[in-house]
Design a protein that fits this description.
Chain lengths: ~210, ~140
Amino acid sequence: MESIFDEQIRFFASVTASVTHELNNVIAVTNEVVGLLGDFIEEGASNRAVPPEALKKVHNRLSAQVSRGQMIVKRLNRFAHTADEKMRTFDLVPVMENIVGLCERPAGLKKVKLDFRPGVASLMLNGNPFLLQLCFYQSLRLVLDSGCSGDILTISINSDDGSAGIAISGLDKGGIDAVGLGLAKLAGIMKELHGELRLIDDGRSLAIFVPSLD
Amino acid sequence: MAEAKVLLVDDDEDFTTVMAERMESRGLNVDKVDSGTAALDKINETPYDAIVLDLAMPGIDGLTTLKLIKQKNPELQVILLTGQGSIDKGVEAIKLGAMDFLEKPADLNSLLEKIKDAKSRRMLLVEKKMEDKLRDILDKKGW
């Protein structure tokens, strides 16, 4: 069985591989748009006028890719900084918003959309945000790999009497057993987090419960 | 290469849109789809000279799509074009019958050269297939 340290390294590598793949796509599109601009320059050199609308389109396409790239880098940077300190006080909502954003591509490859609905504006925790994200990531993979979800999975956050709950909802009944069997794999991480992972809502949601400060 | 007919298969529509525009301005006839399933439907309708295929896509991935394309139509030439810069995948793709493997971002002229090769290779294979068929008929007739 893998140690938690190994799992953390694998998690970081997996997120980095996914994000760099996405960034490479941005570079590939930018490369083609720059090529298109080069084609226009050649047309201009041979005295053929390039319509202003065509140039505007190039400008818009480049701007869109810059925004897309910025968002990807921002998410990766925020994610990387969650490993700065092992234990700290942090707001769960932005941390989850970020990791859900980073999970959009792996979920998309399984034809699943993630819908983040925090339910609370802010929820303070004292713990290890990196490990908590690993727990969420593994839980999500469990659901995605079991093929038991529909087209949309809702990620919600709830606060209840000193406890924070992160729920992945939208599981089909047929896949509950497959998810249930995988829960034991996350026992070590849950112990580190002083939390609990279980199926709720008659098996339609997989929820992580950890202590909160609120 | 005015008559070359190409199918671009990639879930990144921003990419296929610009790539198709640039290829069309060079005289190629380009169709684009965003999934392996859609590609398999398309090859039933149109005799493409080359398929430019991404690896990581929602639903069936590029390698599975490649396998299914080759099962359906072994003469079809497939060029993998992907952001997944792993040599292992490239080797696997070639073993599965891909003509070539390029990493994104790719140089358009290099890709056009590969498409040109793909078209020649496909024509040779189609001709050979027809010759074999004809020989088979002649043999059966005892001529």
